[in-house]
Design goal:
Layout: E1 2-6, H1 9-26, E2 31-34, H2 41-52, E3 62-65, E4 67-69, H3 80-87, E5 99-100, H4 109-122, E6 128-131, E7 153-156, H5 159-165, E8 178-181, H6 184-188, E9 192-197, H7 203-211, E10 229-234
Parallel strand pairs: 1-10, 2-3, 2-6, 3-5, 6-9, 9-10
Antiparallel strand pairs: 4-8, 7-8
The structure holds 2-amino-2-deoxy-6-O-phosphono-alpha-D-glucopyranose.
Length: 245
Amino acid sequence: MKIIHANDYAGMCRKAANIISAQIILFPNSVIGLATGSTPVGVYRQLIEWYRKDDLDFSTVHTVNLDEYCGISPDHPQSYRYYMNQNFFKDVNIPAGNTNLPNGLAEDFDMECTRYDHLISELGGIDLQLLGIGHNGHIGFNEPNEAYGKMTHRIQLKQSTVDANARFFEDSSQVPRYALTMGIRAIMQAQKIVMVANGEDKAEILYRAVYGPVTPSVPASIIQLHPDVTIVADTAALRKFPTET
Ligand code: GLP
C-alpha cells in the first residue's frame, strides 16, 4: 500500500487527479470506478481543468459509479447521477453512454444489481477505482458488518450515514434509507484502488482502516488485502499515522 501525503485538500485533489490522469493518458480505454461525497469534488474539478487545457481526453473512457440512492430520480439534486453530471460529466468530453450508475428507480432491485455486475464485467472490469471513506468506515455504501463477499446489492443505510448525509438534504427525513452499492467483492476486483481522505474528522477512521484489524466492522479495512492501493490524504487525515508516512 502506498500512502501519499498532501499538505491540504487542494494538494490531495491534485495528487489524486494526477494518478487518474496518468491512468487515462497511458490507457485511454480505461474503465474508471468513481465515487461521490464531498471529498472527490476537487479531484473532479482538477480533471476538468486539465481537460480544458487539452491534457486529457475522456472520449474513450468508461465510468462506473460505486452507488446510488434508491427511490430518487436521476434529476433529483441529491441523486448521485445528478452529482456526477454536475460535478464532472457535463464539463468533460465523456460520451453520456459511457457513464454508468446503478438505477435507484429500478422496479426490481435484484435484477438491477445483476445488470450492473454484468455491465462491469462486459466492460472488462474496473482498471482504477476511486474511493472515499465514510466516518464509520464505509466504502461505497457498504456499511459496517456487511458480508465481504457481496457484489452489487441493495443496502439499508445506517442512521449515522443518514445523519452524515443529511447536510445535503433539507432535513434528515428526506435522506433515502436505502441505496444500491457495489459490494466489497466488486470493489476488491478493481485492478487499482485510489482512496482519498481529508480533514481531521477522517483521521481516526483512516487510521483504523489502514492499521487496524481487517474486519467487516470497518469495511474500508479490507483494502489492506488489495495488491495495488494508493491512499492520498492530507496532513489532518494522516494525523494518527506514524511520521515516516
Ligand atoms: C457517501 C458515499 C461514499 C463516500 C462517503 C464519504 O456516503 N456513498 O462513497 O465515500 O459518503 O463522503 P464524504 O467524502 O462527503 O465524507
